[in-house]
Design a protein that fits this description.
The complex is a heterodimer of chains A (about 110) and B (about 110). Chain A has about 110 residues and is mainly beta. Chain A is built from no helices and 11 strands. In chain A, strands 2, 4, 5, 9, 10 and 11 form a 6-stranded mixed sheet that branches. In chain B, about 40% of the residues are buried. In chain B, strands 2, 4, 5, 6, 9, 10 and 11 form a 7-stranded mixed sheet that branches. With about 110 residues, chain B is mainly beta. Classes of the chains: A mainly beta (about 110), B mainly beta (about 110). The interface between A and B is medium-sized, with 21 and 23 residues.
Chain lengths: ~110, ~110
């Protein structure tokens, strides 16, 4: 069952512009959300996370927004850089004992 | 370099066989996690061990089992292998909980023929 969905398999943006990656979830019991970045032939790398009691978390160029009523979170990257080109996974944790991932969105940042 | 090591990098085996994947966590991390990334199922959380004890269980098949040893390294055992078990298997480690920052190893690519 797909409890975490990333409906856009790919996204292409120009260097310097904003990248917005979206993620929807169905399980209202999820209490923690994370974003990971993955380059080919490497393991995922943690980017940023947010607790369900917050609606925004910022870390440098990365900001995650959580809309609990819409069961939606998004990752904003500003400004986008060519090195940001990777596959981005959103993930959700429930009760600190299960974790579900979206299918990933491939971001391409063009110079 | 995440500090998490996994061996072997690649593994090719036949259906019905059994394999063991190995993971060494980052120094100081007590939790080890196993994940499977396959083409049709995406990235899936399998299991977490904390300081030698199983702590959380995800979509792990009964044919799969894991353990964490006193030196904190972990092994994932896959038995009665099927074609559909072909995937990338990642190990990650963190200080304690699932919510903590996890550091992923480079993965083991398993091919079942």
């Amino acid at each position: 069952d797909q409890q975490v969905k990333q409906n856009s398999p790919s996204l292409s943006v120009q260097e310097g512009r904003i990248s917005i990656l979206n993620c929807d979830y169905t399980n209202s019991m999820f209490d923690y959300f994370l974003w990971y970045k993955k380059y080919p032939a490497e393991g995922p790398t943690f980017l940023i996370s947010i607790s369900s009691i917050k609606d925004k978390n910022e870390d440098g160029r990365f900001t995650v927004f959580l809309n609990k009523s819409a069961k939606h979170l998004s990752l904003h990257i500003v400004p986008s850089q060519p090195g940001d080109s990777a596959v981005y996974f959103c993930a959700a944790i429930v009760n600190n004992n299960d974790m579900r991932f979206g299918a990933g969105t491939r971001l391409t940042v063009k110079p | 370099d995440s500090g998490v090591t996994q061996t072997p990098k690649h593994l090719i085996t036949a259906t019905g066989q059994r394999v063991t994947l190995r993971c060494s966590p980052r120094s100081g991390d007590l939790s080890v996690y196993w994940y499977q990334q396959s083409l049709d199922q995406g990235l899936q959380f399998l299991i977490q061990y904390y300081n030698g004890e199983e702590r959380a269980k995800g979509n792990i098949l009964e044919r799969f089992s894991a353990q964490q040893f006193p030196d904190l390294h972990s092994e994932l055992n896959l038995s009665s292998l099927e074609l559909g078990d072909s995937a990338l298997y990642f190990c990650a480690s963190s200080v304690d909980r699932l919510e903590d920052t996890q550091y992923f190893g480079p993965g083991t690519r398993l091919t079942v023929l």
